[in-house]
Amino acid sequence: MSKQIVYTEQAPAAIGPYSQAVKMNGILYVSGQIATELAAQGDIRAETQQVMKNIGAILRAADMDYANVLKATIFVKDLNNFVAINEVYGSFFTTDYPARETVEVARLPRGVNVEISVIAM
Fold first, then answer.
1. I need a surface site. Which of 34, 64, 77, 89 has the fewest CB within 10 A?
2. Mean pLDDT over residues 53-80, rounded?
3. Residue pLDDT, tens place only, 96-114
4. What CATH code is carried by the domain that includes residue 86?
């Protein structure tokens, strides 16, 4: 039962005292991913696309892919963006969809509009 820290240069480095992901007993816990470079542009689809690509890079670093995702949590600054986020998010899954919740929040790190974390196995 050893804990493995998962890191890839293909996704943004942690901006605080946490890891991109931690794997233990075959379960991967991916920290919330953001796309700071796209947040200011106001294109929620592009921002969500980059967040999902970041997640994909971390999944690959753990020898997994989107099919391994069991659960996702989406934090969004404006729930009016739900449809656009949902369309982009859904395009990354070709098999059964994971469990998920979407929560509107007042603020997110670095002024982003969306943050997504996942649990995979």
1. 77
2. 98
3. 999 999 999 999 999 999 9
4. 3.30.1330.40
Q: Which two tokens stand for residue 37?
A: 């470079």
Residue 31: give the domain boundaries. 4-120
Q: What is the pTM of this model?
A: 0.95
Token digits for 6?
């998962």
> How many domains are there within the chain?
1
Token look-up 């953001």 returns 34
CB 97 within 8 A of CB 60: no
E strand spans, 1-121: 4-6, 21-24, 27-33, 69-76, 99-104, 114-120
